Structures are given as structure tokens and as C-alpha cells.
Amino acid sequence: MARALEGAKKPVIIAGGGVVASSAGPSVIKIAELLSIPVATSISGRGTIPDNHPLSVGVVGAYSRLTANKIVSEADFVLFIGSNTGDMVTNNWKLPKKGTRIIQVDINPSELGRNFPVMKGIMGDAKLTVCKLLESIDPKHKKTQWAKYVSGIMAEWRNEVEPLRNSDASPIHPERLCQEITNILPPNAILVADTGYSSIWTCSMVDLNHNGQTYIRAAGSLGWAFPASLGAKCAAPDRPVFCFTGDGGFFYHLCELETAARNGIKTITVLNNNSCMSQCLVGVGKAYGNYPGNKGDLFKFREVDFAKIAQELGCVGIRVEDPNKIKCALQSALEADKPVLVDVITDVSCKPDFEPSY
Questions:
Q1: In whole angstroms, what is the distance from residue 122 CA to residue 113 CA?
Q2: Cβ(275)–Cβ(300) below 8 Å
Q3: What is the pLDDT confidence band of residue 357, given thresholds at 50, 70 and 90?
Q4: At what angle do helices 126-136 and 25-35 cross, to 10 degrees?
Q5: The dihedral of CA 297, 303, 308, 310: what is its sign?
Q6: What is the DSSP letter of 33?
Q7: Residue 330: phi, psi to the nearest 5?
Q8: pLDDT digits (tens, 9 = 90+) for 223-255
Q9: Which range marks the domain in which residue 122 is found?
Q10: Quick check: is 351 in a domain?
């Protein structure tokens, strides 16, 4: 494994949930820094490496940051650590590209090579295996040119999204909302995201820049994030807990606002409110075609003031329509002594980029 990393010209490490579970992140970063190797993560592997680290390329796969998919598509060697190489992290088994040399490390032997062809599978705990690997690494094999190229891709992407992240448009761009969350998210915060667009927005546009931040997301059950955030707060009462969800997902369990208020479970729920189940727009449009009727009935909602609902159920409710007031609303939420819902009115036409055709 060490020789494969040293001999590759364009290696990439992909860290999965097993890295987070075994607290192997610092050791993975050491290997990356010794050899100047870019690090991508699965959704469950977020937190392995801070997003502002020069070797971090973001989440790879179906719900990804496009930079990660591009970089992994160009790699000549990929080391999966603590990942089952399922459909999400491999973008439906299209990444890494066919012919790429792959080694997979996983604590479960049945996962080795089960979902994706590998040149070698290594059974082992992520942290123990990476620590042993560190003992064998020769730092003279740095991938300086590859790291410089990757850094250029990352810089180009950040320049492209900068106008969206700082947009003063109203309705609000979700990219601006995600930037404000990045700026205010405490170093020890837990961020719980719903599935679908909520996962994509938070994976691609919310940076986790501190080692003490934790990311949890729903793996397919829409609406899961809000009640899960209540559970996270009960398990970690001394940590700030943020929930990021859309109005479509929040409708499932909004009654738990009363539960949170009655039991004093102080979470901060940030609602990406565009009065629509927006991830369904493209698929429904294709399936519906030119049939008569109103296809909007399948994904469009009434405009709802969720902040008022939160207030009626005993929580703090803050409605935000001006992007320049997001920061103040989030700061007030952190200082409140009750559960808070920040209802942010966003532009339904904004779509996250994902599943590129590499």
C-alpha cells in the first residue's frame, strides 16, 4: 500500500465513514501532508479533513462538490479508507474511472471488492491501518505537481461560486445561506442535514473548517433531519446543533417543534423555504411531458410562514427574506434560550450541481 501511494503520479485518498468512526482523520491528514496527496470524502466521511485544508477537495460522488469528482476522475491511484464504495461515493460506480488502480481498506471483510473492483482489499480498522501505513511512508515521494494542479482546480471553483455565495439577490440564493452558516457555525457544532438537496447544498457549499465540527445527514428518509437533530442535542447537550432542511422535508415532522419546546431541546433549524419539493422538478417535468393538467400539484406547496408556526408551538421563529439579515438571525438563534426555527425564503430556480458526466 505504501509503495503504491509512493509510486503513483496522481493519487487520491477517499475517506469514508469508517475514518470518522475510528477517529482516523488526523492520521489520514498526516499521510496526505507527507506525500502531498489530495483527500476527498464520502458524505459520511465529512470531517476527516477541514474544508479549508489545502489538500481537501470536498465530497465525491453523486451528492458531491464538482471539484472532487473531477479530481478523482483524473487520478491514477485511489485509496479508499473506511468506505464500502457504494453508489453514492462512486457516483453510481462511475468513479474512479475504469482501469484506475484501487486499494480498499475496510474493517468488514465482506465489503472488500464487493461493490467496486479493487487491485487489493485490506481488512482493518481505519485508524490502526493508517497508523501502520504512516510507519512505512517515505516522504521524499511528494506529489508536488499534482497537488499544485489540484490547488488550481479548487481555486478556480471557489472563484466561480464566490458571486453566488455573496449574492444579495432576493429570493435568497441557497449558496448565500450556506456561506452564512459556514461563517457562524461554532467550532464544536453538529450539523444535521436532510437527504436530497439539503445534503447536496450542505456537502457542496457549507464548509466545515474545524476539527471539532460533526456532520450527520439522512441516508434516504426525507424529513429525518429535524427529529434526528433533537436526538443529537439530547446526546450532546453542550454542543450547538444545527439542522438544515427544506420545507418539503420539514412538513413531515414539524409537530416536533412542540416536543422541542416542551422539553427544552435547544436546536437551531435552518429552513431552506422555496415552497416546493424542488428536487422533483426535473424528474416530474420529464415524466409528465405534455399531459394536460397542473404538474405543479406534484411538487408545489402553498407559501407558509413557518416562523409563525414555530412561535405558536413555543419556539423562537425568525423569518428571513433579506440575505443581509441571515447573519443576525443565526446569531440570535445561537443566543436564544429556546429551540429556534430560522425560516429563510430562497429562490426555487437555484439548483445545486451534482452527478456530472465524468
A1: 10
A2: yes
A3: very low
A4: 30
A5: positive
A6: H
A7: -70, -35
A8: 999 999 999 999 999 999 999 999 999 999 999
A9: 2-153
A10: no
- With residue 79 as reference, give the H or E element that holds it: strand 77-81
Strand 77-81 versus strand 11-15 pairing type: parallel
- Please count the structural domains in the chain: 2
Q: Do 110 and 170 reside in the same domain of the chain?
A: no
* Exposure letters 234-270 (e unless 16+ CB within 10 A, then b): eeeeeebbbbbbbbbbbbbbbebbeebbeeebbbbbb
Query: Given this model, what pLDDT does residue 356 score?
Result: 45
Is the pLDDT assigned to residue 358 strictly greater than 50?
A: no
> Same structural domain for residues 210 and 337?
yes
Question: 175 and 141 in one domain?
Answer: no
Residue 250 lies in a domain: yes
Burial 72-92 (b: 16+ CB within 10 A, else e): bbbbbbbbbbbbbbbebbbbe
Place of cell 422541542: 260
Residues 199, 145 share a domain: no
Residue type, 73: S
For residue 297, give Cα distances in angstroms to 271, 276, 281, 284, 301: 21, 10, 11, 10, 8
